[in-house]
Design a protein that fits this description.
Elements lengths: L11 H15 L2 E13 L5 E6 L4 E6 L1 H4 L10 E12 L4 E14 L1 H16 L16 E6 L4 H13 L4 E6 L7 H15 L4 E6 L13 H9 L4 E5 L7 H5 L2 E2 L3 H8 L1 H37 L7 H42 L2 H6 L4 E3 L18 E5 L4 E5 L9
Parallel strand pairs: 3-5, 6-7, 6-8, 8-9, 9-10
Antiparallel strand pairs: 1-2, 1-4, 2-3, 4-5, 11-12, 12-13
Length: 406
């Protein structure tokens, strides 16, 4: 069947098969140099990845029988020479290289850059344990620098709030992947240090390929972490992923979720101790009451006290009153302890940045640099400033400066 233009009308399958036959007959068997990226293995053992260079990427598949014969360990970033046939996978309409043999051509460029920077920074002392800052024993204000979307930020917030609901969490959203990510991450670290609103920072993202995690291997990020006066926990990728940020940070967490658990481990222990004290106090009071009850029962069956029944009944009534007072007193003690704990938490809440803003204070910054304005001499007349309020913010222009009230 042909159209009015004289072209033959093809189905998608017919066109794909035509391209497949043409491409495979024209290209056939080739030898390709490239760098492995996005490696993953299926359940049956087939390996799927892409070979890439500066200008293009090529989908590759290496079936289980070939993978079993390869002498090298496949990993992202490995530069290899692949021999195989170019084919078309009809179901997806894409061409791919079916690999017959694979040999290592050398360490990939990204791994070379990684090792070079790692060696340089280690020589300068950025990884020295003596320079690492301790993580606060009981941090109550946690800063998180990561992407505002995705499972990572939700996992961190869920774990922090579940383990200790009185924490204040301040999220500084940034890119965590791509060309601009490293600059944004470094800027976020510097900005959080300037604001000084948190006790500790968690910096990280979820798992991915070496390219996905590369922002955390940039020198700019490493030096921002090293210069931070706030303790930093690096939480990048999975447990097997290591980045330059991990070596510079004050503490490395194997995953972002583990970072949330590490930063609240003492909070959890404190809650367990308080709960244990509460249970032990209740058991002690119950034991005291039971001992006195048994003693009263012994007195009631005593031959000496058998006759003066009325007097014994009075003692029984008096004991019941004492026991009731003990119960009330124990409840008062427990309630007092709980109120004290709530009072401490309320005081901590009052010291939080959000509470300070709620009382009418504000934070004035310069929009170009993000610098916090603390002195009238820092600004000029007609200069534009940003004002952060408890709810929302303002953009203002300076009409006059008062330099006498300093």
């Amino acid at each position: 069947m042909t159209t009015q233009t004289g072209l033959k009308l093809l189905t998608v399958t017919e066109l794909t098969n035509f391209i497949k036959d043409t491409l495979e007959s024209m290209v056939g068997r080739v030898r390709v140099l490239g760098e492995i990226s996005g490696l993953h293995t299926s359940g049956p053992g087939h390996a799927y990845f892409t070979l890439k260079d500066e200008g293009a990427t090529l989908n590759c598949v290496m079936f289980r029988n070939v993978a079993a014969k390869i002498a090298i360990l496949l990993k992202d970033g490995l530069k290899v020479e692949a021999t195989g046939e170019v084919t078309v996978y009809p179901s997806r309409g894409q061409y791919q290289l079916v690999i017959e043999n694979l040999i290592e051509a050398g360490i990939g460029e990204l791994y070379q850059r990684f090792e070079a920077l790692k060696k340089k920074l280690a020589t300068e002392g950025l990884f020295d344990a003596a320079r690492k800052k301790p993580i606060p024993f009981l941090p109550l204000r946690i800063g998180v620098i990561t992407s505002p979307t995705g499972a990572v930020v939700r996992d961190i917030i869920n774990i922090l709030t579940r383990r200790f609901p009185h924490l204040h969490i301040i999220l500084y959203p940034t890119l965590v992947q791509g060309k601009e990510a490293s600059s944004e991450i470094a800027r976020a670290i510097r900005r959080m240090n300037e604001l000084n609103l948190v006790d500790v920072l968690i910096v990280g993202r979820g798992g991915g390929s070496l390219e996905d995690l590369w922002a955390f291997n940039e020198e700019e990020v490493a030096r921002a972490i090293f210069a931070s006066h706030l303790p930093i926990i690096s939480a990048v990728g999975h447990e097997t992923d290591f980045t330059i940020a991990d070596f510079v940070a004050d503490l490395r967490a194997p995953t972002p979720s583990a970072a949330a658990e590490l930063v609240t481990q003492n909070h959890q222990r404190l809650m367990e101790i308080l709960s244990d004290i509460d249970e032990r106090l209740e058991r002690a009071i119950e034991h005291y009451i039971e001992v006195r009850r048994l003693h009263l029962k012994q007195l009631a069956t005593s031959h000496i006290l058998y006759s003066p029944v009325n007097r014994l009944q009075q003692y029984q009534q008096r004991l019941d009153e004492i026991l009731e007072r003990l119960r009330l007193y124990s409840r008062t003690l427990i309630e007092h302890a709980r109120r004290q704990f709530a009072l401490i938490m309320a005081r901590l809440d009052a010291l939080s940045p959000e509470a300070v803003l709620a009382r009418g204070y504000s934070i004035v910054t310069k929009p170009e640099t993000g610098e916090v304005v603390k002195n009238a001499q820092q600004v000029n007349e007609s200069e534009q400033l940003d004002v952060r309020l408890h709810k929302g913010g303002l953009g203002v222009i300076v009409e006059k400066r008062d330099l006498n009230n300093q």
